[in-house]
Input
Amino acid sequence: MSALLGSGFQPQTFGVDWLVSDTVVPYPEAVARMESHVDGMAAGVSNELVWLLEHPAIYTAGTSTKDSDLVDARFPVFRSGRGGQLTYHGPGQRIGYVMLDLGQRGKNVRAYVTQLEDWLIAVLSKFGIEGRRRPGYVGIWIANGDRMDKIAAIGVRVRRWITFHGVSLNVEPDLTHYSGIIPCGVRDGGITSLAELGLHPSMKEVDRAMQRAFASTFSHTEGRR
Output
């Protein structure tokens, strides 16, 4: 079931609609829905949208995936048109599928990815966590002594200057599920979550943080009206 955010949420943020699914959404269904929405945006009949959801336990393979990154196909593997490599999705992980019109936001994909990084860093800061970029890598990382652990992933696709796919934030997933893959092809870092860092916000609290951080991160860009 999906619904526009309520209970204290604003239904729109700078012209962007927000949707939350409160049950897990099968990956093929999510992709089909994104594709349909992107077509609607291109036709001028759908607003920009951020869709927050969870998937059942799966692996998704981006366009840069190497076969050697799949160690053990513990869960279904779906080929994805997004950028990036092999990653895990599952319950306890908040997915943010972001459908924005870059045609009205500067037509700069690199700047858009930077904004997604800024967004995730701002979300983590609301829970007292310092998220960091890692040179040469995509996603957001947490310093763990001499090691960097990944807490959020980014994988996007752009068609006709409209974005889809987006970000995933590890709230309280089963981190052992990552053992079947080399996440995003990274062999010199770990995977972490808010729960592993000792934080246990509800998914609704995470959603609120994501919306508020999005408003400040993307407020200086012009969206579809």
Summary: The chain is about 20% helix and 30% strand. The longest helix spans residues 109-125. The radius of gyration is 16 Å. The longest strand covers residues 147-159.
